[in-house]
Design brief:
The chain is mainly α. It has six helices and two strands.
Amino acid sequence: MDKYSSFSSLDDDSVLYKEWCGRYPPELRIPDAVILLTVDEKNRIQRHQAGGDLLTTEEQILAKNDTGREAILQSYREYRPIEIDTSHLNSLGVLNIILTELEQFGICVVKNL
């Protein structure tokens, strides 16, 4: 799912949003787990700058629009994800949390984290 799709194409009052938000189309298999990685705005900007990423139009809009950013998060939360705030974690820290969460859900067995 594109991270901007709910922001740019659906609003909370649309028929499609109300019909499908939090539901999977019948032709798709429901995943065992959905993982939502979040980051606070300060760290999001720092990561973009450190990675040399260009600020897209969508990124600029999100940076100025707390309501829009929160609407995106809320639409993803409708899928009841495992939500992990990555703001102060490195990639290994994120991986360890994901594996621990998946193990708690009985999805995988983790040896020697």
